[in-house]
Specification:
Layout lengths: L5 H17 L2 H10 L7 H9 L18 H13 L6 H14 L2 H12 L5 E4 L14 E3 L2 E10 L6 E6 L2 E6 L4 E6 L7 E10 L1 E2 L7 H34 L1 E2 L2 E2 L4 H30 L4 H26 L10 H13 L4 H11 L3
Parallel strand pairs: 1-4
Antiparallel strand pairs: 2-3, 3-7, 4-5, 5-8, 6-7, 9-10
Helix pairs in contact: 1-4, 4-7, 5-6, 5-7, 7-8, 7-9, 7-10, 8-9, 9-10, 9-11
């Protein structure tokens, strides 16, 4: 477990208290039932902005707090525990692209608006059903971008898109030449198809050839942090259920086979935590983040998949009902597993980076 500063501990505790009291799973259920394209409560996101969470990784000069990626990961983890929906992670990843590759003018124009929560920004990469950054077809000619991005998280509410094209990353503002179509995925969050038809685009010229990889690493690690929060909460919920559910005249937690399963889950989640926190720390250190990010996302995919599956199985019949919250965790976990690379993708990437 990472050693936190006093300020990071306070931030984590504040996020935990707010999520538990102001944005519990019942709040997400209301968002789901409202069935709006944005997929989150704008009022709750405004409160996050007021607490400074939208500017955690943005420098003070652009209105943020420059508190680092580990600090942001702590907040994302706590929000994951209650399935709180927000564009916090998507906007942070888009902001990181501007920080790493933007000019001073681009930073001054966009980062203060992201830090204040005024602007929702997002990363648009995937063009097909699978995550494959090597097969990007979107093109820019004469400052105009054309192409279609198949699954853009928070695309329904984004005012700024960081778009991967054949020759780099571009900033595209929502408006002329940009059309957004809502997509319905199992987790009921915003995943839009976004089509660009001659949309005005500004290139992020700094950062070199590794800019896209660096931004995708940040996206993968933040998704892993959310999965960690979900897995931790799922473990606690399952353990509490096993301690009170009586079957065959005995409390389920007294069965040795179930004890072994829970012990295995605990071990997997602790390994997941180590990998995720190492990924966040690697981003804060700077330099090459590829191996740490793939380790974090690969382990999060595996442990998150196992925990969400066991969550349903160990709850038995009630785990499959909509009246119970377990299904929300399963559905969100499955979507996050595929975002920014599944377990097979990151195992292969880690092996190649290791020289195998």
């Amino acid at each position: 477990m990472a050693v936190l500063t006093e300020e990071q501990t306070m931030l984590r505790d504040m996020a935990r208290d707010w999520a538990g009291n102001e944005s519990p799973v019942s709040a997400w259920r209301k968002v789901r039932d409202a069935n709006e394209a944005a997929g989150y409560d704008a009022g709750a996101y405004a409160t996050m902005a007021q607490m400074g969470w939208t500017g955690i990784i943005i420098p003070e000069a652009q209105g943020g707090s420059d508190f680092g990626w580990l600090s942001l990961g702590l907040v994302i983890e706590e929000l994951g525990k209650t399935l709180a929906a927000s564009p916090l992670a998507a906007s942070a990843v888009a902001a990181s692209a501007i920080l790493l590759g933007g000019s001073e003018a681009q930073k001054a124009k966009w980062l203060p608006r992201i830090a204040s929560g005024e602007l929702v920004a997002t990363l648009a990469v995937d063009e097909g059903p699978r995550f494959d950054p090597a097969s990007i077809a979107a093109k820019v000619e004469g400052g105009k971008l054309s192409g279609t991005k198949a699954f853009v998280a928070e695309g329904d509410s984004a005012g700024l898109f960081v778009v991967a094209a054949t020759d780099g990353l571009y900033l595209v503002e929502a408006g002329a030449g940009v059309s957004v179509s809502r997509r319905h995925l199992a987790d009921f969050r915003s995943h839009a198809q976004v089509s660009f038809d001659g949309a005005a685009a500004e290139k992020l010229a700094e950062g070199g050839d590794g800019l896209l990889d660096a931004v995708l690493d940040r996206a993968a690690v933040l998704a892993s942090a959310e999965m960690l929060g979900m897995a931790s909460a799922a473990f606690d919920t399952t353990l509490a259920y096993l301690k009170q559910r009586v079957q065959f005249g005995q409390v389920l937690a007294t069965f040795q086979a179930l004890q072994h399963r829970m012990a295995n889950l605990y071990s997997e989640i602790e390994l997941m935590r180590s990998a995720v926190e190492a990924g966040l720390a690697a981003i804060d250190r700077g330099g090459d983040t590829r191996q740490a990010a793939s380790l974090a996302k690969g382990k999060a995919n595996e442990a998150g998949h196992l925990m969400s599956r066991e969550l349903i199985q160990l709850h038995g019949g009630i785990g499959m009902t909509d009246e119970y919250d377990a299904g929300f965790t399963l559905k969100r976990m499955r979507v996050l597993e595929q975002m920014w690379g599944n377990a097979a993708y990151h195992r292969d990437r880690f092996a190649r980076l290791s020289g195998f």
